[in-house]
Structures are given as C-alpha cells and as structure tokens.
C-alpha cells in the first residue's frame, strides 16, 4: 500500500466516525447535558456550601538569638462556608500565604504561645464579610525555644586562592564584612573562633567582587549567609636575580665556600610590584645542620628570606658543591 493510499484510508475512517457520532440524536443528548450542567452551576452558585482549603503560614520577626526547638506548623486546613458563587474562584486562585509576626511573643519563658484566634482572624481578612469559618485543624500554636548567646567572629577563606595563569593577586583578598555576629548555645559558641567561606572555584583573570557563601555550622545562626569577596588581580611577569649564597648556623671558626657562590633565582611578580622587589629582599642559604649528616659534597639551597607577593620562586642550581674551612689560627689569636 502506497503512502498516498494509506492517508486516503485514514481520512475515510475519520469521516465515518464523525458521521456516526455527530448525529441528530447525539446532538440532542449533548444539548440536554449542557442544560443540566448550567442548572447545576446556577444552583451551586446560589446555595451555601462548605469548602476545605489549605493555607500556608510564614513566620516572621523571629529574633536571631532565638532557637525554636519544636517545629511550627507551616500549613493549616480550614473549612469555610459561603455561597458557591463566592467560593468558586478559590478553586482556581492560590490562597495568599498568611504571615505570622512573632517578634513580640518571646518573653524569656522558653515557651512560645500564639493565640489561634489571632491567626484565624488574619486568615478571614482574606475572605468577604459573608464567609464564615466552619472548622480549623489547629487548636493551639505552642513551641519550646532557647535563647542563644551572641558573639562577633572573624571571617576567613578556608584555603588560599590562585587566579588563572599568568595572573596573580595584586593585593590581599578583602572580605566585606570581615566579621559576623553569630548566635548559638553557650557550649557551642565557645568553640567557634573563625567562620570560613566556601572555596572560590572560578579561575578569575580580572579584579572581581563576588558574593561567597559561608560554610554552615550545625546549631549556629549567622547574621547573614553570604559576604562580598573582593579579589584584586593583575597580570604577572618573570623576574630574575643573582643572589649570594651564605651559610647559616656555622660554628664560630668555620667558613663555608660554595661553588658557585651565587644562585640565579626566578619568580613571577605582578607588574605593579616589579620594580619594588630588590636583591636584599632575598636570602639564599645553606643550613649547617643539613650538612652534618650529608654523605655527599652537595649542599641543598634554601630560601631563608623572601618578600610577599611573589609566585613560583625557584633557584638554579638547587644544590651546590661546597668546602668548609676552620680558622683555628684566628681563633687562637683572639
């Protein structure tokens, strides 16, 4: 069967079905069904009816130094009575959330009590004056609460941050605000000395201010859950220097000679600090303690001094040949 023939056959079947359904008798039947439906709607609209509704509750005004132990109901189911024409649109429109202000309900007693008549009155203001409350599933609103202690705590990054290469931090990362007022039970708040931020995962390539979340702590309430983090960034370049190698921790009569006597160091530094870094900011050393148990004639080099704000610091060579000399003659003469 060709595709054209198939579609013709489908059209014939649909025509037969439509002809059999939309007969005069079927149309008469549907007309009376419509009339009956309209009479039902008119009767329902003019008579009093009960309607069950679920109302969402939002609690506001809870002080940050208050910890509610018992869970508060977030919904209540009510049954209201009015004419069907009044209640009809509530089937299609979402009933507004009722906000319950608890700011004046904490009196240091440890027990929160809220007058349900006040809540019902708030709910009924959303209905016309003709609507009556028929039933409610909440008889009382009561909960235990604890008063928390407060403490100002510094905020810090949990780990260091490095921008995308070849960019570096131009200055220290700034956290705004850098302290936070927290609320917690006495035994818990005494253990907290620092709040930490979620790690910055994005590799930035320009100075940016971002909002960063605090790492949550169980049982601790924050004044706010996030802070602004200002990350100053600039492009970096490589710089090289020749630095003398010196011995550290040598006995008084010893002189240490290394070959070579200088190390070539290289590092990356931001353009704004390129000319501020000088040779005297570094000290490349051989520690005498590292030579005492060294079987080879190679001494490892260490950085005993280096400035802030540089990156990828390295020295060439990393190990040097050395000889140690004792000057007993000068020591005796003294």
Overall structural class, as computed from helix and strand content, comes to: alpha+beta
CATH topology of the largest domain: RNA Polymerase Alpha Subunit, Chain A, domain 2
Main CATH class of the largest domain? Mainly Beta
Number of domains: 4
- Indicate the low-confidence ranges by residue numbers: none
Work out the strand percent: 35-45%
Q: Sheet with the most strands? A: 6 strands, mixed
Number of strands: 23
SSE series? HHEEEHEEHEEEEEEHEEEEEEEEEEEEH
Write down the overall mean pLDDT: 84
**Treating each run of at least 4 consecutive H or I residues as one helix, how many helices?**
6
Gap from first CA to last CA:
121 Å
Helix percent reads 10-25%
What Rg, in angstroms, do the CA atoms define? 40 Å
Query: Do you know the CATH architecture of the largest domain?
Result: Beta Complex
Shape, per Cα inertia axes: elongated
Write up what this structure looks like.
The longest helix has 23 residues. The chain has four domains: about 40 residues; about 100 residues, RNA Polymerase Alpha Subunit, Chain A, domain 2 (Beta Complex), CATH 2.170.120; about 80 residues, YbbR-like domain (RNA Polymerase Alpha Subunit, Chain A, domain 2); about 100 residues, RNA Polymerase Alpha Subunit, Chain A, domain 2. It is about 20% helix and about 40% strand. With about 325 residues, it is of the alpha+beta class. It contains six helices and 23 strands.
């Amino acid at each position: 069967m060709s595709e054209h023939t198939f579609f013709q056959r489908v059209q014939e079947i649909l025509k037969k079905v439509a002809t059999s359904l939309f007969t005069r008798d079927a149309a008469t039947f549907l007309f009376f069904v419509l009339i009956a439906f309209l009479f039902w709607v008119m009767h329902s609209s003019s008579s009093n009816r009960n309607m069950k509704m679920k109302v969402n509750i939002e609690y506001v005004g809870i002080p940050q130094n208050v910890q509610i132990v018992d869970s508060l109901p977030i919904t209540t189911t009510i049954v209201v009575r009015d004419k069907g024409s009044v209640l009809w649109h509530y089937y299609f429109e979402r009933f507004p959330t009722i906000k319950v202000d608890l700011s004046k309900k904490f009196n240091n007693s440890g027990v929160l009590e809220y007058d349900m008549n006040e809540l019902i009155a708030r709910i009924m203001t959303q209905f016309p004056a003709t609507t009556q409350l028929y039933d409610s599933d909440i008889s009382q609103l009561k909960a235990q609460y604890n008063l928390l202690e407060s403490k100002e705590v510094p905020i810090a990054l949990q780990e260091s941050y490095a921008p995308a290469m070849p960019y570096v931090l131009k200055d220290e990362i700034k956290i705004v605000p850098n302290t936070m007022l927290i609320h917690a039970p006495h035994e818990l708040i005494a253990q907290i000395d620092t709040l930490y931020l979620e790690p910055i995962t994005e590799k930035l390539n320009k100075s940016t201010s971002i909002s960063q979340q605090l790492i949550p702590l169980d049982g601790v309430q924050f004044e706010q859950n996030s802070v602004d983090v200002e990350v100053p960034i600039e492009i970096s370049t490589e710089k090289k220097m020749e630095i003398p190698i010196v011995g550290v921790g040598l006995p008084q009569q010893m002189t240490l000679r290394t070959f070579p006597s200088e190390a070539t160091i290289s590092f990356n530094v931001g353009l704004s600090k390129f000319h501020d870094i000088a040779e005297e900011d570094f000290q490349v050393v051989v520690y005498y303690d590292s030579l005492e148990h060294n079987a080879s004639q190679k001494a490892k080099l260490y950085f005993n001094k280096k400035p802030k704000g540089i990156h990828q610091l390295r020295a060439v060579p990393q190990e040097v040949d050395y000889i140690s000399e004792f000057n007993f003659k000068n020591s005796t003469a003294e």
